[in-house]
Design a protein that fits this description.
Elements lengths: L1 E3 L8 E6 L5 E5 L12 H4 L15 E2 L2 E2 L2 H19 L4 E5 L5 H15 L4 E3 L1 H16 L9 H5 L2 E5 L3 H4 L1 H13 L4 E5 L12 E3 L6 H14 L5 H7 L3 H11 L3 H8 L3 H13 L3 E5 L1 H4 L4 H14 L9 E4 L6 H6 L6 E2 L3 E2 L3 H11 L12 H10 L4 E5 L3 H4 L3 H10 L2 E6 L12 E4 L9
Parallel strand pairs: 6-7, 6-15, 8-9, 8-11, 9-10, 11-12, 15-16, 16-17
Antiparallel strand pairs: 1-2, 2-3, 4-5, 4-17, 13-14
Helix pairs in contact: 4-14, 8-10, 8-11, 8-14, 11-12, 17-19
Length: 445
Amino acid sequence: MRTTCPYCGVGCGVVVTRRDDGCVEVHGDPQHPANYGRLCSKGTALGETVGLENRLLMPSVDGQQSGWYEALDALAERFGRIVAEHGPDAVAFYVSGQLLTEDYYVANKLMKGFIGSANIDTNSRLCMSSAVAAYKRSFGSDTVPNDYTDIEAADVVVLVGTNLARCHPVLHQRLVAEKRRRPTLQIVLIDPRETPTAESADLHLALKGGTDAFLFNGLLTWLERFGHTDHDFVSAHTKGAAEALKVARWHAPSAAVVATHCQLEVQDVERFYRLFASTPRVVTLFSQGINQSNSGTDKGNAIINCHLLDGRIGRVGSGPFSITGQPNAMGGREVGGLCNQLAAHMDLDNPEHRAIVGDFWQAPRLAAGAGLKAVDLFRAIASGQVKALWVMATNPAVSLPDTTQVRRALAACECLVVSEFSVHTDTLQYADIKLPALGWGEKSG
């Protein structure tokens, strides 16, 4: 059977075979365009996760094992009663980038179109919301303008805020293999730490943490000053260039100022700027080091602006490429997986978009505006504003910021439903209704 690895954002294809003795063998799928047969250690060990050991196998309600009909009736009764008494915004779903796109779609349709609230958010919020906002601010939609083949077609690959070798290992293997095949390919790593990824970099800019926007605003200033603006592209396809350049000049007027602020050598900053400016095919890969910041959206936009000013976007081997943390973070966003989105990149705050989706769904009560984002959602549970929560395919008691507060919220929740694969998770211990879920190799989509 051909399927997909459930771990990181590379989304590797795997071929799964069940042996006569019942054991499962997992190999990389040589036909899959993400990995072409490569797998990292986690993907290689996937077969060990298939089995009934430590599995949640039966539903339960209030600590008592039950059948599926009883559990679903209890869920429907409790959610329905809370909606009737307190309104649809008193209930919520918290979902996950590990869900299949189809799961994501139906959960959104149920919450936003039929319960009538937009209180459905996802753990993808923790890794991707800054990139989502940066793309929307730049392009008007949450659209990543690249695919993996651009990395191998580029002449310069800039890695920003990512330890690619550990976090997206198969993607790193592809990059390193291309570097071996084509030694002229230049790799620039921008990261305060000397991670394993630095071993493959031609230039490592170990900048002061949090100063990425200074570096890229300085690049924007440098590109304009030394004549690397693609005036035709800027005129035909962008707005606001003059304003962006004005801010960049004030923020980062020269390579020397950037070097001082970022605690780098000025010659290294200039080397990076010259390399970017002189190479038509540049891909900038950015990940959590950019996104997980109180100015993550601005940092994303600073990167995107550099690609817009010199037209290094919309061409093979070029563009600002956000790489996600989970296998289906992007799939979830495609179908409206965040509390401020609708399916197909449409916006909840746009009446025309709401009308399109509402008509297509034949929704009796489409949500009228954005719901609670992940962190705000758990604060609202703790305060009693949200009284029922359904958690799917994630473990917020461990993965959310301020886990003490999150656990307090889960314990206080009037009705907590958890759909879970494993019988032992930190979140499951708080659940009033437990629903078994199929795992990565058991679902067809």
